Amino acid sequence: MINKYKNINKYSNKYNNTNNVNTNKPNTNKPNTKLCKPSIVYIIISLIIIIAQLFKGILLSSLLIQILYNLLWIILIGWLCEKKYEALSWFLVVLPILIVPFILNYFKNKDKTTEDDTEEDDTEETI
User: Fold this and answer.
1) Which of 4, 56, 92, 118 has its CA 20 to 30 A from that of 31?
2) What is the block-wise mean pLDDT of the chain (127 residues), using blocks of 10 residues?
3) What distance in Å separates the CA atoms of residue 82 and residue 75, rounded to the nearest whole number?
């Protein structure tokens, strides 16, 4: 009679116990929330730039647009890392840093040409 109850306990533990779940398998339902190195580097660079602009006195609307832009860029970089395009994601981290000097040079030269044009206009009026 005791053997009969041992078998019942054995089966009840086998089917009703939730502790028998195999924890060695990775959970594929959760997305990968770990950030890759290019994303982390871009976050650090973005935070430094945002803090510097806050001390400079940036408008709130410009700050929100920049934060939105940075979030989208970080999502893109993270997505590329998940797809195993880490070299391309590193390029996208460096790309804004490479483009900024050209943009600044363009606006610097544009200001010089507009100043030269206004000086020529002033001299024509005085003649």
Assistant:
1) 92
2) 57 54 58 80 91 87 90 93 92 88 86 66 56
3) 11
CA distance 34 to 45: 18
Distance CA 60, CA 66 (A): 10
Please list the alpha-helical segments (H only) found in 17-59. 37-56
Contacting residues for 82 by C-beta, under 8 A, at least 6 apart: 32, 36
pLDDT of the residue at 80: 93
The dihedral formed by the CA atoms of 39, 40, 46 and 50, expressed in degrees to the nearest 10: 140
HSE at residue 54, side-chain half, CA atoms within 13 A, is 8
Two tokens at 117?
A: 């044009």
